[in-house]
Amino acid sequence: MTSPLLEQLIEAFRVLPGVGQKTAQRMAYHVLERERDGGRRLADALAESIERIGHCARCRDFSETETCATCASASRDVQQLCAVESPADRLVIEQATGYRGLYFVLQGRLSPLDGIGPRELGLEQLATRLATGEVQELIIATNPTVEGEATAHYLAQLARNHGVRPSRLAHGVPLGGELEYVDRGTLSHAFGSRSEMP
Amino acid sequence: MTSPLLEQLIEAFRVLPGVGQKTAQRMAYHVLERERDGGRRLADALAESIERIGHCARCRDFSETETCATCASASRDVQQLCAVESPADRLVIEQATGYRGLYFVLQGRLSPLDGIGPRELGLEQLATRLATGEVQELIIATNPTVEGEATAHYLAQLARNHGVRPSRLAHGVPLGGELEYVDRGTLSHAFGSRSEMP
Fold first, then answer.
1. Residue A164: helix, strand or coil by DSSP?
2. Nearest CA in chain A to B61
3. CB-closest option in B5, B44, B68 to A2
4. Does the pLDDT value for residue A125 go beyond 80?
5. Own/partner pairs for A33-42, CB < 8 Å, 24+ apart?
6. Cβ pair B87, A31 in contact under 8 A
7. Contacts of B1 in chain A (CB under 8 A)
8. I need a labelling partner for A76 at 20 to 30 A (CA). Which of A110, B60, B127, B139 fits?
9. Could A70 and B2 be called an inter-chain contact, meaning their C-beta atoms sit closer than 8 Å?
10. Which of B197, B198, B122 is nearest to B154 (CA)?
11. According to the model, what pLDDT value does residue B138 have?
12. Domains along chain A?
């Protein structure tokens, strides 16, 4: 390598998800050869975001303000609360559905072996919120994984304890998929949960 | 999106090669959730590299010093000069071969339609260097594309004009490949250039 700084830059790029040595090299060369302005903007945005983006005090999603725009909005339905594992999940639900309620971002899932319990997921905060009586329905949108399901059961119990109706996203065959390629677990579940056609 | 800053960060990540909206989102979330320290290091490395990395005055490769370490080294063979299109090409040759000569990085290839001529590739500088009589062999390692071949022919002529022997990387069937999957052009070339077995 001709430049120790360049070596350091390549190493630094490897912090990004899915970026190995080769891709990091490509990124460093690309920025230096063709995108110095863009690279400067990226460096600034990165430094400023890390400095200023924290978590919303109400929903725990990323926010640079005390309360995020969604939680502060007067046009959202406060009777519905949707619990998701991560900010990315919140984003896809917001983009794909017409949901107008509020969110609660767990920032993880129950995983006792990794030391992630109710406290780490902010469930005390969620319980306090459910206790106010404002929320009617807790939509549980954790991932359909073993840990996500365990978290879902825990949340459902928490909701019931506060007289809130828990609901869960439907499981089944994805739209536009072919049965042949759907995994057995999903197919078996979809078969068992079949509904009468109108 | 809950945070305009986050939106800006995602947009900034898209400057990287092969990074679209989805990957940029994943990178931004990953850095904010799990890698704030690494992200800070990346921002610093990026800003500093863009600020300080320029081109070596001798070989045109990236360098933060006037002359890069390779060109400044006393242990390299000054009689061999290898011309490559990009710093990445220089790097793979350095890593894959035992080459101990020097390099000349064109930072592109002849492409009149894009306004890239001999001047943009620093060929005057290369000519001056070949004229000193120090270089015995110019190893032309431009890519085996149409433009790379055109550049190779131009460089070979330049070398001959200064009494320097031009050479070109061998073309043929890649090691470990299967003939069935080699493209026709390569196979036809390899067949025509077959050599007698010892």
1. coil
2. A2
3. B68
4. yes
5. A33/B86, A33/B87, A33/B107, A35/B15, A36/B50, A38/B12, A38/B15, A39/B15, A39/B46, A39/B49, A39/B50, A40/B46, A40/B47, A40/B50, A41/B12, A41/B15, A42/B12, A42/B13, A42/B15, A42/B16, A42/B43, A42/B46
6. no
7. 91
8. A110
9. yes
10. B122
11. 95
12. 4-52 (1.10.8.420), 77-168 (3.40.1360.10)
Q: What distance in Å separates the CA atoms of residue A167 and residue A80, rounded to the nearest whole number? A: 10
Taking a C-beta distance cutoff of 8 angstroms, is the pair B33, A53 a contact? no
Q: What is the helix, strand, coil percentage profile of chain B, to 5?
A: 50, 15, 40
Q: Does B64 touch chain A (CB under 8 A)?
A: yes
How many angstroms separate the CA atoms of B149 and B143, rounded? 7
* pLDDT band for position B1 (cuts 50, 70, 90): low
The Cα of B191 is separated from the nearest Cα of chain A by a number of Å equal to 32
A37-78 pLDDT, tens digit per residue, is 999 999 999 999 999 999 999 999 999 999 999 999 999 999
Q: What is the pLDDT of residue A198?
A: 81
Closest by CA to A121, choosing from A130, A113, A109, A111, is: A109
- Report the distance separating Cα B96 and Cα B90, nearest Å: 10
pLDDT tens by residue, B100-145: 999 999 999 999 888 899 999 999 999 999 999 999 999 999 998 8
Q: How far is CA A61 from CA A11, A163, B2, B7, in A?
A: 29, 25, 8, 14
Q: Does residue B185 carry a pLDDT above 90? A: no
What's A181's DSSP letter? Answer: G
Q: In this prediction, what percent of chain B has a pLDDT beyond 90?
A: 71
